[in-house]
Design goal:
This protein folds into two domains: 228 residues, Rossmann fold; 105 residues, GI Alpha 1, domain 2-like, CATH 1.10.400.10. Helix 11 runs parallel beside helix 13 and helix 12 crosses helix 13. Strand 2 and strand 3 form a beta hairpin. The two termini are 50 Å apart. The chain is an alpha/beta fold. Helices cover 42% and strands 11% of the residues.
Length: 386
């Protein structure tokens, strides 16, 4: 009887386990490298506010010099708020209710849209008088019919504080300060990792790019190496139009943009989290009697339990969920500043949704904790650990 040489048998299970061990070692080796998060969304959706929240939560907040540097921007926000309101009063056929305020109106219109060279006591007195006028308040209530920053009421209600010589902005003031994002902004921070996921700390890079149409052509520059997309939606914008295109509904623009991002093969490996943002403003609008139905007629047939606000926010979420399951018709898409550049993705993906109020630090802290764990799980699942 012939003896065969001893040959070690191949165990597929053992080989797969070794492969995973190698990949875990590779993961641990690169674990100290930054996880890159990219904030996307239309203009004024709240992306920059989230960047500011990360600074408050993970980078020791704002220094005194950073706070004082925000004063001119906050005062300008206050000016553009009152200026836009009084400029649009005749357009909406609304007059001042107090004749004594005509002089204040003329004063501010003469100042112009760029604001005064110096914010004097006389300036703040005129703003204060106008903000107390019933006609100005009526025009403010119809702000969805023209372009007005979300923080208008917040800052105008605090005109006495903002006008003080020793004014120093609070976190809440800074979070609500609106400045158009141009180019690419980045914040770096560290976050503790749960012990169940090896513990230690993890570096994060969060990138914010401008959301207006003209800024989107720059997005492709930051796609490489992105681990997760945070797509931010201003849910309260359902009855407003774009600042750069008065013919386009803001929420409809967000849906178009999200579909492009969802289908992009450039972002195929990135996890996608949708922040259904500005829930506080959405709830306020609904309580004031406004409805999403005139802008999205399908809402009339949407079935969901709860009050009008709950039904509205669930309907908006459903609009985005439907896009993640929709089979897109293959078509050539032309690259332009008006439309995001995509090449169709084919692999199955998951999308996570969170209802958020970006100006609420506690809310953002809670959501980030959940999202942080999801991102780590997503990365580890890619190498077969989860």
């Amino acid at each position: 009887m012939r003896l065969l040489p001893c040959i070690k048998s191949y165990d597929e299970g053992v080989d797969h386990s070794k492969q995973i061990d190698r990949e875990i070692k590779e993961w641990i080796k690169t674990y100290n490298e930054a996880i890159k998060l990219l904030l996307l969304g239309t203009g004024e959706s709240g992306k920059t506010t989230i960047i500011k929240q990360m600074k408050i939560l993970h980078v020791k907040g704002f220094s005194h010099s950073e706070r004082t540097a925000m004063i001119p921007h906050i005062r300008f926000n206050t000016h553009e708020a009152i200026y836009e309101i009084i400029q649009n009063m005749p357009v909406l056929s609304i007059g001042l209710q107090n004749a004594k305020h005509v002089r204040a109106q003329q004063y501010l219109l003469k100042v112009g849209p760029e604001g005064p060279q110096e914010y004097t006591e006389e300036y703040f007195d005129n703003v204060r008088d106008l903000w107390q006028d019933a006609g100005v308040r009526e025009c403010f209530k119809r702000a969805n019919e023209y372009q007005l920053i979300d923080s208008a009421e917040y800052f105008l209600d605090r005109i006495d504080l903002i006008g003080k010589e020793d004014y120093v902005p609070s976190d809440a003031d800074i979070l609500r300060c609106r400045r158009k994002t141009t180019g690419i902004q980045k914040i770096e921070f560290k976050v503790k990792v749960p012990k169940s996921m090896h513990g230690g700390t993890q570096d994060f890079w969060m990138l914010d790019v401008g959301g207006q149409r003209g800024e989107r052509k720059k997005w492709i520059q930051v796609f490489e190496g992105i681990h997760a997309i945070w797509f931010v939606v201003a849910c309260s914008d359902f009855d407003q139009t774009l600042r750069e295109d008065n013919s386009q509904n803001r929420l409809k623009e967000a849906l178009i943009l999200f579909e492009d991002v969802w289908q992009s093969r450039f972002l195929l490996e990135a996890g996608i989290i949708v922040f259904l943002n500005k829930q506080d403003l959405l709830e306020t609008k609904i309580k004031q009697g406004r409805s999403i139905a005139p802008y999205f007629p399908k809402y009339n047939h949407f079935e969901a339990s709860g009050d009008e606000y709950t039904r509205t926010k669930l309907f908006i979420r459903n609009l985005f969920v439907n896009l993640t399951t929709k089979k897109r018709e293959r078509r050539h898409i032309i690259a332009s500043a008006e439309r995001f550049v995509v090449l169709e993705a084919s692999r199955a993906r998951e999308c996570y949704f969170h209802f958020t109020t970006a100006t609420d630090t506690h809310n953002v802290r809670t959501v980030f904790r959940d999202v942080h764990q999801m991102i780590l799980t997503h990365i580890l699942s890619n190498i077969g650990v989860y």
